[in-house]
């Protein structure tokens, strides 16, 4: 990742000194500092930073007005609030004016560094994810099935084509949040789900609800394990899985999402076949707060 040019906006010389040392020691290039709206406009105009750290309490103004002024100069400049204050109202207003992140004072060096790197991650980082995410999800799936059923499925019919599909009867859908947002779908017939649930429980499922719960949790384990493996490869991704939602019935259609990359495959198990679909978008992921 290229070196990030940073401007510090804060009314405290002490805080400016702390942030300048912290940022410099962690590989960032501090190109200016400001303690008022007028200084902010002048420094940002001249220094043309990639990112600005913004205090909330600035004499005669506030961090919101300074942020709006920065984005009038260049809407591509990222702003993160670095303030001792953090509450829901401030966060809501910050998101509304396109602040990219929020860290609370006193700031931890590792947390702030990771936050900035996530915000400034570019096409190079997305290509890194694209290069290995499908293999990671396959590995996680095989590991989970091996532990639960003592069998290893066969993965066939792999594809990177993003198309709309019809469900076999049960679809477990999970969102992924982090540096990039994504979607994971596990789809199967009711018969396959029943057999997988039975071998996983080591008994016959009590009812249909238990079958759905088992498949939801198996899908969640695969997705969670895969995201953890991706984060170990590069913690900037910071991926997390949203709680699964399970749909079941006849004539369910799996829509084609607007994603930058997609991967799909069929999973042949001794208990029935599944299909998986995974994709990530190139745009901004979740709004970044303190790690």
TrEMBL record:
Matches recorded under Gene3D superfamilies: 3.40.50.2300, CheC-like (3.40.1550.10)
Q: What does the UniProt keyword field contain?
A: Chemotaxis, Phosphoprotein
| Residues recorded as bearing 4-aspartylphosphate in the entry | 55
Q: Which InterPro entries match?
A: CheC-like_sf (IPR028976), CheX-like_dom (IPR028051), CheY-like_superfamily (IPR011006), Sig_transdc_resp-reg_receiver (IPR001789), ST_Response_Regulator (IPR052048)
Q: Tell me which residues make up the Response regulatory domain.
A: 5-120
Please name the Pfam families in this protein's record. Answer: CheX, Response_reg
Highest taxon of the source?
Answer: Bacteria
PANTHER family to which the protein is assigned, alphabetical: TWO-COMPONENT RESPONSE REGULATOR (PTHR43228), TWO-COMPONENT RESPONSE REGULATOR ARR22 (PTHR43228:SF1)
Function comment: May play the central regulatory role in sporulation. It may be an element of the effector pathway responsible for the activation of sporulation genes in response to nutritional stress. Spo0A may act in concert with spo0H (a sigma factor) to control the expression of some genes that are critical to the sporulation process.
Name of the protein in its database record: Stage 0 sporulation protein A homolog
> What organism does the UniProt record list as the source?
Clostridium gelidum
């Amino acid at each position: 990742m290229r070196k990030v040019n940073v401007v510090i906006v804060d009314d405290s010389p002490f805080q400016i000194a702390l942030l300048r040392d912290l940022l410099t020691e962690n590989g960032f290039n501090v190109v200016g500092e400001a303690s008022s709206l007028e200084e902010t406009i002048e420094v940002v105009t001249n220094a043309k930073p990639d990112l600005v750290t913004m205090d909330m309490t600035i004499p005669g103004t506030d961090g919101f007005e300074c942020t709006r002024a920065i984005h009038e100069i260049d809407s591509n400049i990222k702003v993160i609030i670095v303030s001792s204050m953090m509450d829901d109202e401030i966060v809501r207003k910050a998101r509304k004016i396109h602040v990219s992140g929020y860290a609370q004072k006193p700031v931890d060096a590792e947390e702030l560094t990771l936050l900035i790197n996530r915000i400034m991650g570019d096409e190079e980082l997305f290509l890194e994810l694209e290069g290995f995410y499908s293999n990671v999800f396959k590995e996680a799936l095989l590991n989970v099935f091996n532990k639960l059923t003592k069998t290893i499925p066969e993965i066939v019919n792999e594809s990177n084509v993003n198309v709309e599909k019809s469900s076999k009867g049960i679809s477990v859908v999970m969102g992924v949040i982090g540096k990039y947002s994504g979607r994971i779908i596990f789809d199967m017939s009711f018969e396959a789900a029943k057999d997988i649930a039975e071998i996983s429980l080591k008994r016959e499922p009590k009812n249909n609800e238990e079958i759905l719960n088992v498949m939801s949790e198996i899908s969640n384990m695969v997705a969670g394990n895969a995201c953890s493996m991706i984060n170990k490869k590069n913690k900037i991704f910071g991926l997390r899985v949203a709680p699964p939602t399970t749909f079941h019935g006849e004539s369910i259609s799996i829509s084609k999402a607007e994603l930058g990359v997609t991967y799909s495959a069929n999973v042949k198990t001794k208990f029935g076949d599944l299909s998986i679909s995974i994709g990530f978008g190139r745009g901004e992921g979740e709004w970044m707060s303190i790690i």
